[in-house]
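Deliverable D5.2: sample structural annotation.
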Amino acid sequence: MTNVGESDRLVGLLTQGREEFTGKWVRGVTSTLAGRLTAAEVQQDLNELYTALVEALRNGGVATRNEAYGEVRSLLTELSRNRARQGFSPTETAFSVLALKDVLEPALADGADVKAYLQLARVLDDLGLYTIEVHAKTREEIISAQAEQLLELSTPVVKLWDGVVGVPLVGTLDSARTQVVMEKLLQSLLDLNATHAIVDITGVPAVDTQVAQHLLKTVVAARMMGAECVISGIRPQIAQTIVALGIEFGDITTKATLADALRHALDRIEERGPVEIGGLL
């Protein structure tokens, strides 16, 4: 029997036994999800997938990379992404496809239909692997988005006084975080019409050449907005490390504590009077 003939045979068998096969498929998948999805939700997903699979077999045979499987892949992409967002594992997601093999085996794996079953089993294996790939990619996207959200939360810009904003840094300062700090600081300077910014590094465990460069970039960016910038939280150990590494902060004002930096900023505001930031008084 040719592949085309086997495909036609599969289409006929799947069409004829649709109600029985989909019913068993839905029950089998639902039983493994421990009540996290209703039977109605699973039934909707699998019925649509079953219909698309039969059409793909009719129009494209068993070659899953064929354009005829576009609708099947689209449905599997949606299913896999939803399962990933809902917290299901890759195995649980792939089982939603592979469970159809267990349903069809008793009906097709014996006698004249065995070749057709083996062809379909290979198709379902390929589609199961596809769900794992999509699931893994979606989980990576979710983790990346969560990391960005945590980064945003870990770099707050707060208003300390009229015209003064502060950036309390805690933890390691790398390139990605520096970019977030600069963006939030510059936007806050503009939104609050602040003329002074205090970058507090009390919570930064260590300052090396790379961290110092990131701090300098932040200060330069603030100055380009017309604001003065002070670095506070220079502890004795940090000061010794900076001197030992030969790091130069140039004319950037540094203070031991946030309170000292705020006092300095208020004194400067009193001396200078109102100053424009971003073209606004």
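Annotation notes: The beta strands are 158-161, 164-170, 196-203, 228-232, 253-255. The longest strand covers residues 196-203.
The annotation will be released with the project's public dataset once the embargo ends.
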